[in-house]
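Mods, move this if it's the wrong board.
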Amino acid sequence: MSGGHLSKEFFELVKSIGESRSKQEEDKIIVGEIAILKQHLSAPNISAKKMKEYMIRAVYAEMLGHDASFAYIHAVKLTHEKNLFAKRIGYLTCNLFLHKDHELMLLLINTMQRDLQSANHIEVCSALASVCRLVNLEMIPAISPLVFKLLSHPQEAVRKKAIVAVHKFFKIVPEAVLDQKDQIRKVLCDPDPSVMGASLHVLCEIAKAHPASSKDLVPSFVSILKQITEHRLPRDFDYHRMPAPWLQVKLLSILSILGTADKAASEHMYEILQECMRRADSGVNVGYAIIYECVKCITRIFPDHGLLELAASNISRFISSENHNLRYLGVTGLAQIVQVNPAYAAEHQMVVVDCLEDPDETLKRKTLDLLFRMTNPQNVVVVVDKLTFHLRTSVDSHLRRDLVQKITSLAERFAPDNEWYVNTMNTVFELSGELVPAETAYNLMRLVAEGAGEDESADTAFRVFAVNTYLKLLEKPTLSDILVQVIAWVLGEYARLATIDGYTIEDIADLLSECIERPFEDPSTRGYLVTALLKLIGQHGLKSTTAEDIIRSYRSSRMTDLQQRCYEFEQLRQSPALMRKVLPYDASCEDIAVNKDLTFLESFVRQKLDEGAKPYQNASERAARAQTQNVPKAEVETKPSLNFMPYIGPTKPQQLPADNSIQMEDKSEVLREHI
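Not the wrong board. C-alpha cells:
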C-alpha cells in the first residue's frame, strides 16, 4: 500500500511521534492529537474513508497510554458499515478498545450475529476474530449455535477461526462445548491440516478435563502423528525441514495425557514414539523440542523398558552438550526419567554434578533439583555436600529455603549414620537456622533421646558424641536460635556424659549462663536455656551463684513463660529431693503416669471435711436435693453458661417536630434553673 489514501495530518502524527525525544514531548503531541480527533469526530456526515483514519489515529493514542474512550462508540458504529474494509477496521478497533465486560458490548452482539451468518466469508472471519477476543459468559448462548454451524463452512479459514472460538468457549463454559463433542471430533478429520491442527488445542483441553471420554481417539491421534512424520503434509508446514513440528508437539502432549496409567492405550503409542524420536534427531533446535516432548510422553504413559532406554540415551547427549539450553533440556528430561526409574540416571551422575559449575543460574537450580531426585544411600554424602556448598554461597532466600528443605529431607531419609546426621543438621542450623522448621529440631532431639534402639552402648556413645559436639559449638559467639535450643536441650539432659578435658558440670552451667545474655530473635530460646540450667542444678545439686542470679533476674521478664520457669525454680530450690524427682536424668522418653482419680488429694479432702467443709455434690445429687428440699432453681444451677442471645440493634432516632424541639429547650432551661 502506498499510503496515498491517508491524510497529511496522519503522516505528520506518525513522524512527530517517531522524532519525539522524551516522554513529555510525546505526551504533548498525543494530547494535541486527541483534541483534534474530538473536533473531527463531532462533525456531521463523516465519510467512511475519514472515519477509518480517525480510528487508526485513536488506536495510536490508546497504544501510547492515553484515553481515547470518546472514539469507542464510533468504532462500534464502524462495524455496521456495509463497506468491507470499513467493517474490518471497526472490528479491529473494537478488539483493541473494548473488553469482554464493556458496556458497549451490548451494541456489538447483534452485529456479530448478523455477520456470522453473512455469505461473505471475510465478514464472517472478522466477526469470529472479535468473538475470540470479546466473548463473555452472557454472549455464549446467543453466539455459540452460529459458531458451531460454521465448523462445516466451505472456507477453511472460517472453519479454523470457528474452532478457535470453540476453544475460547471451552475456557469459559466447558459444558457448552462438551454438549457438541461429536461435532468437534469431526473437525479432527478436516481435509485442511491447519483446521485439524487448530482442533488439537480444544481436544487437548477436553482430554485434560475428561481423559476417559477421549481414550477412543488414541488410534486417530497416532495415525495423524504417523502421517506427519512421514511428510504427508504439504511442505508449507515444514520448519527447518521438520514436518509440522508444532502439531507433533501438541499430539505428543495429548498422547501423554491419554496414556497415563493405561497399558492398552500406551501400547498403541510405543512404535510411533520410537519412530518420532528417530526422525526428529536432525540436529536442529525444533527437532530437540520434539525429542524432549517424546521423553515427557514416555515418562508419563505406561512404562516400556526399551523406550525408557532410548529416552535416556537421547537425554544424555543433551546433558553433555556445550549449549546451555540443551543442557537445561537434558537436566529437565533426566529428572522426569528418574521419577520412573532412578537406575537410568546412575551413569550420568558426574555429568550432572558438572552442571553445577555452570554460570547459568537457572541451569544450576534445575541441576540441584535433579540431584535431589537422584539421591540414594550410596551417593547421599556427595549430594548433600554439594547442596550445602550452595546453601553457604547463595543469597537468594527462596533458593536457600528450598535447599534447607532438600538437605533436611535427604539427611532424614538416607543418613549413613547418626553422627553424620547430627553434623549435617548442625551445619544447616548454623547457615540457615531461621529457615528450618521446628519439627526438624524436634526430630533431632528425639533421635538423641531414643537412639537407634538396637544397642544401648551404641546409643550411649552417640549421646556422648552429641554432647561433645554441642559443647564445642556453644563456644562460638553467634549461633542461630534453633541451634541454641537444641544445644540447651541436649546439655540439659546429658551434660554428665561430656568427655572433653577441662569441662565440668560447673563449666557447662557457666557456658549456658553466658549464652542467656546473647540477643535472640525467638523469645522462647531463653526458656530452653533456663530449663537446661534447672536440670543441671536439680540433677547434680549444683550450686552456681551465677546461674541462680541469672535465673532470678528473669523473674521480671516480659515473657510469661520465662517468668513461670524462674518462679518454679525458686520453689523447687527449697526442696532438692523434689527438684531431682521433677527433673530426672534421661527421662524425656518415659511415659508420665497420670493419676486421673487424684487419689493423692484424699488426705487433704478428709482434713477439710473434718474441719467442717461441705462435701462435693455432682449435678444429679444437686437436682435430687432441690426436689426434696424445695431449693430454688437458681441455687442449684451453679454451672456458668454463655448467653448467645444477640443484643438488640439500635433504633433509628426519630426527628422531632419544631414545636417539640422548643419544648425540649424549655425543659432544659427549667432543668438548668433547678440545678
